[in-house]
Amino acid sequence: MSGLSVRGLEWSAPEEKEGSFPGIPSEVVSIALNRGIEDLGEFFKPTLKGSMPDPLVLKDMDKAIERGKQAVLKNERVCIFGDYDVDGATSTSILKRFLETMGCEVSFYIPQRLTEGYGPNVPAIEKIAEDEIDLIIFADCGTVAFEPLARAAALGMDVVTLDHHLSDDKHPEGILVNPNRNDETGDYGYLCTAGIAFLYVVGLQRALREDGFFEDRTEYDMHHLLGLACFGTVADVVPLVGFNRAMVKIGLRHMARNPGLMALAECNEVEPESFNERTCGFVFGPCINAGGRIDDTWLGTLLLTCDDLTECAERANALYEINKERKAKQQLMEAGAFEQAEAHSDDNVIVCYNEDWHPGVVGIVASRITEAYDRPSIVIGEGGKGSARSIEGFDVGRPIKKAAADGILIKGGGHEMAAGVTIDPEKLEAFRDAMNAAAGHVDRPPLVADIDVPCGGISRRLVESLNLLAPFGANNSEPRAMISGGMLISTKVLKEKHVKGRISGEAGDIDIIMFNAKGTPMGDAILAAKGSIVDVYGRVEINEYMGNVSIQVKPEDVRPQKQPELAF
Fold it and tell me: Could you confirm whether the keyword Transcription regulation appears in this record (predicted)?
């Protein structure tokens, strides 16, 4: 199939690659091979033993472990300074749980997002020093926080940083373990800090074992921490390859060992048996992040480090209610943002602004606009603070950094797919013009399909077997199908916002559903194509509703072919 679609993109059909693996259908093996998977065994049956690197492969991990060992042997006071997102909360919790069990006196500190901002700051460091801390460990932050870390050292604290953010040529005070530091030569840049923290405690326990520490005490069961490492890895959207894939696939089975996550599951009515990567990314993750976005940043870590079931229930319920508040704020913000987006729908980059919008929610709203309009968007709220989200083919961080250098922004930075800005609202139009000029021409890659079938040609057995490719996430997305030659025989709008339809072909019918799509280019295109022959690109899934089971597709692109010919 060729030609442009509603999104103006080419579609790429999969190659037919043959291969086999015990217990895996050939169609699924073919998808894995098309995705460049070379070791089918490690992909379909990953093991920690086969994929976990020796912690010492990370530069200066030996120094960090030695300093941690001394802290344990001397029962020192340790403070963990973490970030307010899920990766920060899980890595902080991994470190606190292990070091506390080993006999250290452990506290933690999470900066308040709205008043302190991201990462270490000097006032916080000075406050921590008042507790006579011997060792401070920065988790998921600190790589470029030169002044605060220097202040920590000046106040007599030894400094260890476990982080995965890009470094400068200059390194901060103390010991830095970061697979993305500029002089690192290893291949583990895909790790988030939760994975690094897990490797750290594994290495530290080994060092303590070699020192005879466990001759009269029990070693820590690392499976209790594996679920936290899994959660942080999924929520931080790092590539699910290598050790990450094994950590997530195996760690999902151990998440129920954490009382805080079990309490969060009960609030959200999720059964432990059904824990999967979507539970991490779309149920637990938003609850933990909600505390960091609009309320108390400490709540997530307090929950994940808690073993008292009553306290866990109270903290989980608090986060659940905060997340409900976040959803309400998001809904109100989206209404205004989409109204502005429609007014600027011809722009290359959609920029929306309202001083009343909560800065902790602007990133989520930007993601929704980018998804709906298929172009980069920047949503700016209170205090001129905003977040940008992009599309494949356009590095949104580059023009934002240039706008900051040119004085259009107060500050701005980020990477290809996401960035942050702070702007004086009086310069909003200049910023809009600069971004539109930067995105004048974007080379969009084609949409790559894993399955190419005629309408109705997907069996329930095939859809169910696609889960053998899980866990899904970055670098291993849910399979996409190209479904060709179906007549769009019906369309309707549900609850005034969702678009539903049915396409019919010689091999059978299949339902399509797009949530929150009414009024978006894709949703309107589907409604307008009723009675036409269409090709659909999207995710296929099993839909169970009121005892009925059917296959449905969630379209990500549609390509109208032609009107049907009438027979007389």
Answer: no
